[in-house]
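Question (not urgent): is this output format expected?
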Amino acid sequence: MRYTLLVIFTMIAFAIQFDAFAQEDAKLSEQYQNMVESSETFEKYKVIPIIKVNSFGEVLSDTINNLNQQVSSAKDAQLTAEKERDSAKAQMNDLKAELEQARSVVDEMPLFGIPMTKTTYNIVMWSLVVILLAGLVIVYIMFMNSFRLTKQAKRDKERVDEELEDLRKRSHDKQVKIKRELQTALNKLEEYRR
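Got this back:
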């Protein structure tokens, strides 16, 4: 932006000076024409009074000095414009470098103290999420399997407990029956003995 403004400013300055040069040139040309036309002719020569020649010489000298000063100031303006352009380019390069550095800082994310780009960070984070989800699914499956086995073991224990209770009752009934039979046999033996 500054470079463009600088170029426009320089072009306007040169246009103004060129216009001034053209006007000065037209004035000198008119003065020369007037001086030649108002002078007397002697055979094939023009006789121009020395005062007019000196006056025209002074005007010409002043005009040349003015033109030299304008050329000098135009060169100075051009050098200034070039310096400003170079300065603007350098500043633009510095800004580009700062922008790249800022982009790299913004694009960089640390994970466990390790600097990495956002893309790598996203890949690592999503990989961790997938691994954790897979672990969660495995733990859930293992839990459900253990739960099923525990439920089966409880059912088996209840069945074994029922069978054991039934066996106890039968054993107890058998023992009672055997004791009765033994008592009956003892009672019969005692009656035999009496």
